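step=predict obj=Outer membrane efflux protein n=166
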Amino acid sequence: MELILSKMTECIPQKTKFKLELNLVGRAGTDSVYDEGMGNLGRYYIGIVAKMPLYSSVEVERGLKWESDIRFKIGELIGTIAANVVIARKSLKEIGLYSALEKRAQNRIEVGVAYTQEQVDYLEKVIIAQSKKNAAIASIHTARMELIALCSPLYQDNINRFLNRA
C-alpha cells in the first residue's frame, strides 16, 4: 500500500509555484516636438512587460489545504482498497467452506441422515458470501477509478497499469 501511495503522489498534478507571464508590448509613434531652431524629434517606444502574481498568505494556505485534501483523499481510497481486498479474500474462504459443507449436506441427504434444509442453509451462505465478494470487488474498482482520476492526464495510463498489477 505504501508503494501505491508513493506512486500516486508522483502523479498528482502540481500547482505551479511560480507563475510568470511575458507580454511583448510595442508602440511606434511620431510624437513631433517643434522648437524653433530644432528639427523634428520623434519618440519611439518598445518594451517587455512581465507580470507575476503576488501570493498572499491566504493563497499559500489555500494551496497547502488543496494538497493536504488530495493526499487525504488518496489515503482514504487506498484504505478502501485494502479493506475490500481483505473482505474479498475472506469471502472466498467462506465460499470454499460453505460449498464443501453444502456438498457434505448433499451426500448426507442422499444417505438419508439429513434434511434438505441443511443443504439449502449452506447454499444461502454461499450466496451471501458471493454477494460480499462481488460488493468488495466493485468497491475496489470504484476506488481504483477514483485514484486514476486524481492523476494528471499524462500519468493516468501508467497508474492504471500499475494498479492493475498491484
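step=describe
The two ends are 9 Å apart (CA to CA).
step=end
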